[in-house]
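ligand=PCP
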Amino acid sequence: MADFYAVTADEILQGKITDIYFERAKEILKKEGLSRLRVVAEVHAYSMPKGYEWAVLVGVSEVVKIFEGKEVDVYALPEGTIFRPVHPVMNIEGPYEEFCEFETVILGILRHSTSIATKAARCKKIAGDKALLFFGTRAVHPLLALIADRAAFIGGCDGISDVYGAEKLGLKPVGTMPHALIILFGEQVKAWKAFDKHMPEDVPRIALCDTWFDERVEALMAAEALGPRLYGVRFDTPSSRKGNMRRIVEEARWALDAKGFNHVKIIVSGGVDEDAIMQLRDVVDGFGVGTSIAFPPSIDLSMDIVEVEGEPRSKKGKLPGKKNLYRCWNCFEDYMVLSKVKMDSCPRCGSKVEEMLKPMVLKGKVVHEEKSPKEVREYVLKQLSLIKELKPAPSS
Ligand code: PCP
């Protein structure tokens, strides 16, 4: 059987994927009788990519599995929680030896999914009620496909194109047609009509309209060819022809409406990022986004010891002491305090606050109840609705 460069879940749970310096630290601490010291290790992001003021935590439901059977307690923000810089997203409490070498995979899982979900959430926040479709599975190694699909959907994408990911997430895959279909037919109308003839009725008839001619011309050709059966057109305009994409879309929209094809929706894909969504959101009906969500700026989550045997202790640059996080849902403000401080109400509006770090693992027993991707996505969208308008991050 063909083999790919993959690690197995067992190898992850056995701590085989780790940075050598953790193995060395573990050996030295053991030989010096310090490995059973009880610590609090805190996961947080002290900095975020330029223009980012928050991030969406994803990966908790995978990380908790690593602690099964270990003498630790883990408290964390629920999957999909929006968090701010410096604030704790996870506290791991117990003998350091129990989880020392797992820091590598804990951060890898959280950073990858959180980075994708956060970019998806930013794009969705800017896109508003316009459809945001994830076309990025082809941008990641297929061994990571489900991870990318899940994080993109939870982050806010309305649909994903990957058949496998959609099935696993309980979704219907979304998409249109590839250029290859039109190239094989050798002409657009035959290809669009064949799509309409052979595809099940519940597949929206979205014609790809940029293969050879101008977008406006092909959009009108598709509308005349399929009439009321045409749901929409997709422009995947190559960057060499992109000039002013907004003007291209406005022209096509105008020409379609002038000919009475007001029902035809316009989807744009290809190199779409936050800027393009901001510029086009009032003239298009949806976006297909791949690379910019699948390969997003990295949310720099790190783990640091903040307490040893109950004594606040941390490296410079990180705040010592075990902390807690309280959220005022009315102000959508989070308040970080030392864990010995109890907070009942919001200092700003007086509303009751919620303690956000929830028990996930107690004495090695997983008490975390996994929610469905759809439920977690709804939780993310609820929080996004409480966030003020965001400006597109400067593209790298
Ligand atoms: C790809 C496909 C996705 C696009 C890329 C995602 O276009 O249509 O929608 O783009 P992004 O990663 O830049 O966001 P092509 O490779 O041009 O598609 P096709 O296979 O139809 O030629």
